[in-house]
Design a protein that fits this description.
There is one protein chain. The protein is 33% helix and 27% strand. The chain is built from ten helices and 20 strands. The strands form three sheets. Strands 5, 6, 7, 13, 14, 15, 16, 17 and 18 form a nine-stranded mixed sheet that branches. Strands 1, 2, 9, 10, 11, 12, 19 and 20 form an eight-stranded mixed sheet that branches. A hairpin with a 2-residue loop joins β10 and β11. The longest helix has 22 residues. The protein is globular and about 65 Å long. The model has no long low-confidence stretch (mean pLDDT 94).
Length: 400
């Protein structure tokens, strides 16, 4: 089977990329390979469902640019395709005096990123937005919203097929070999030929990149599990929309927060703990080979040495519901351990370089035969159409 472009990975970024390629060049023959029996099973399907505004990201970075552009594209797409979503707004709350300068920095970053309407609010106004939330300072971000990204991804997939693209499920990529300007992609079921490979393999993007790029890939995906609790139905009234803490600027996670879900219910979390396998959604899921690979990576060793206190706190919260509750009580003191029931978990594909840098920005690497999306954690779902457009434009330059 011969194609112009084969996209590896049927998550929201891979699907958005396919959609964007088709929009500009409907004549190109494209295929998407997904190793699971359904689309969007991993990061997309376990997403918190937040439509991010672009508040957190360094102005001018790929994250900032793609999040802000992707936000508007996503909303337009949902309106056109009648996918339910809500623009709810959110509050970001400093709970301690020493967090006030960090909140101010966040506020200024939001203004630099063009978030009109984002403003500092009084504690009385905080009570109007979230009556049960307490803090010492807060900002309100009106642009934030909620959606079910799994549903969004399925619509992307449906449109790709309608426009003549092909999607192959249960096709795990095992090897990529290049000969005479053609990629030969061997899967668990077949072999595909493609002029260009686009790697959107998420948690396995580094491994897929190495199949076609030899040793030029100098990052490793470190899987971080984010565990959630849900509020009991009778206690969901404690949260009106979305409540976030001030994040640690040195750590690429937003801290435990409260999210009203578009598909119903209120989530509390997540923490961020090292997963013992790349798709380890439970503490009991361990892959010794993958874990050993993570622990042996020089970059991870440096991260562990630098953030061991933070990591220990996250791990403690993973095993202690009381500790998890205490973290949530900083934002909503009324929350009790008995209000929380176990929710789901997601695994974040966090790229880490050899020097111990947890890549903060999106990372896309081009080689003569492939384009590798090597780091696309949150806000990749919000940004999906914009990232897809960025990758598609890189790809289409090769077909002009």
């Amino acid at each position: 089977m011969t194609y112009d472009i084969v996209i590896i990975g049927g998550g929201i970024v891979g699907l958005a990329t396919g959609l964007k390629v088709q929009k500009v060049r409907p004549d190109l023959k494209i295929a998407i390979l997904e190793k699971e029996d359904q689309l969007a099973k991993h990061q997309t399907g376990n997403n918190s469902g937040v439509i991010h505004s672009g508040l957190y990201y360094k102005p001018g970075s790929l994250k900032a640019t793609n999040c802000i552009n992707g936000y508007h594209e996503l909303i337009q797409f949902c309106e056109e395709e009648k996918i339910p979503f809500e623009i709810t707004g959110k509050v970001v709350v400093a709970t301690r005096e020493e967090q006030k300068p960090l909140l101010e920095n966040l506020f200024q970053r939001g203004l630099q990123n063009g978030l009109t309407g984002t403003r500092k609010i009084t504690l009385e106004e905080l009570k109007e937005y979230e009556p049960h939330c307490t803090g010492v300072a807060a900002i309100h971000v009106p642009q934030t919203g909620i959606v079910d990204y799994y549903q969004v991804a399925l619509v992307y997939g449906r449109k790709i097929i309608q426009k003549g693209g092909e999607i192959f499920l249960n096709h795990k990529v095992l090897a990529i070999n290049e000969k005479d300007g053609i990629n030969y992609i061997e899967t668990s079921k077949s072999t595909f030929e493609a002029k260009l490979v686009i790697n959107c393999a998420g948690l396995y993007s580094d491994k897929v990149a190495k199949m076609s790029s030899d040793d030029s890939v100098d990052v490793k995906i470190i899987p971080f599990r984010g565990e959630y609790y849900k509020l009991k139905k009778e206690r969901e009234y404690l949260v009106k929309n979305l409540i976030y803490p001030v994040p640690d600027p040195n750590f690429p996670f937003l801290g435990v927060h409260f999210t009203r879900m578009k598909k119903g219910g209120v989530e509390a979390g997540p923490n961020a703990v090292l997963a013992f396998r790349r798709e380890g959604y439970k503490k009991s899921q361990i892959n010794l080979a993958e874990l050993a690979e993570t622990l042996a990576w020089p970059g991870f060793q440096k991260v562990a040495a630098k953030y061991w206190k933070t990591g220990f706190g996250e791990l403690y919260r993973s095993f202690s519901k009381a500790a998890f509750t205490k973290a949530l009580q900083e934002l909503i003191p009324e929350i009790q351990e008995s209000d929380l029931v176990e929710g789901g978990a997601g695994v974040r594909a966090q790229a880490c370089d050899k020097t111990g840098g947890l890549l903060d920005d999106f990372s896309i690497m081009e080689t003569p035969m492939a384009i590798n999306v090597l780091n696309a954690p949150s806000p990749a779902a919000t940004s999906s159409l914009s990232i897809g457009g960025t990758v598609a434009s890189m790809a289409l330059k090769r077909f002009n």
